[in-house]
Amino acid sequence: MCPACASGRAGAEDSAKKMQYRGFIGGMMLHTGYVGSSDLTITSPGGESRTVGVRGAPFGIGGAIRFMFGKHLRIGSEGYVSTLHYGEYSSHAKTGWGGLLADCVWDLGKCRLFVGGTAGGGSQTNTTLLSPVGDDYAAEEFVSYRKYGFAALAPFAGLEIPFGGKVNVVVKIDYLINLSNPQDDFVTGPRLYLGFMFGHSD
Question: What is the DSSP letter of 48?
């Protein structure tokens, strides 16, 4: 075999080793943060209008799984549901999203720093109440219900802290972006996640 061919083959083998599958990590996370949208003005059938601010701390849950390739690259998927309660009469916006994720990870002392993003889709339902809701079968005047889908992008960064052999405590922050269907009542902002990830790697 000629030296050039041998060198090329060795280089290809080295590249394959650098990107070989090394294991997986997955688990669940809770989140909160601070999100909001534009103020909403609701008009009743009688023509009266009222306005409410939409902002506050959401609460939600979700999970992710990552497959590790080489020293830094990870590919997987994640999905979450997040609910924001706002206003005087328990209005609420519920956002669900998920998709494919990719990130890069680096050792940072005994911890691991990761940066990446998720691309996929989601939906939001927003129930806005601007008057008391009676315990009856009468229709309310100041109620608005909206539901719509959107293409989602969520850049994120976080830290994995080893806790035992195959357990990691994960802290993450992200920002959900509505790419395809901008709406005045779409709630977004930084969300902070805390959870546990389990898995193994070579």
Answer: -
Question: Measured between alpha carbons, how far is 81 from 127 in angstroms, rounded to an integer?
Answer: 16
Residue pair 96/123 in contact (Cβ under 8 Å)? The answer is yes
* pLDDT exceeds cutoff 60 at 33: yes
Enclosing H/E stretch for 121: strand 111-129
d(CA 5, CA 37) in angstroms, rounded, equals 60
**Architecture of the CATH domain 25-184:** Beta Barrel (2.40)
User: Rounded to an integer, what distance in angstroms lies between the CA atom of residue 184 and that of residue 148?
Assistant: 12
pLDDT confidence of 17, banded at 50, 70, 90? low
- Of 117, 115, 195, 118, residue with least CA distance to 158: 115
**Mean pLDDT (the chain, rounded):** 89
What residue segments make up the domains of the chain, in order of their start? 25-184
